[in-house]
Amino acid sequence: MVKTKLKKGDTVIVIAGKEKGKIGKIKQIIRDKNPNKIRVVVEGVNVGKRHVKHIEGIREGGIFEIERPIHISNVAYYDESKGEKVKIGIRIREEGNKVVKERYNKKTGETIDIIYEKEKK
Fold it and tell me: How far, in Å, CA of 38 to CA of 10, rounded?
């Protein structure tokens, strides 16, 4: 499995391409064996039309708008409180008898969220 610092539900800003500047939440991360092919589906970004044929008793036909995936390198984590894009780091710190792994804002050092907490052996 390929590692990434972004995860489902994160608010991101598009930094390249025709959708540059748009902000949305990650709905899905599409992973590939090749680490250069990680793609993300972001709410309201890269919306395309899908023509669907009617099938009796199964689905309605018509033209639907769907969000298409974009490459993960074209998005950056968006800090809503500061209103700007942010680089994310991962750090491990020790608190007494616990080990905490967390994501943090590289510029300010603030903790974004905790990945896990373990008891120290």
Answer: 16
pTM for the full predicted model: 0.83
Per-residue tens of pLDDT for the chain, all 121 residues = 667 899 999 999 999 999 999 999 999 999 988 878 999 999 999 999 999 999 999 999 999 999 999 999 999 999 988 899 999 999 999 988 899 999 999 998 999 999 989 988 7
3-class SS shares of the chain: helix, strand, coil, % to 5: 5, 55, 40
Find all residues with CB under 8 Å of 111, minimum gap 6, and list them.
Answer: 102, 103, 104, 105
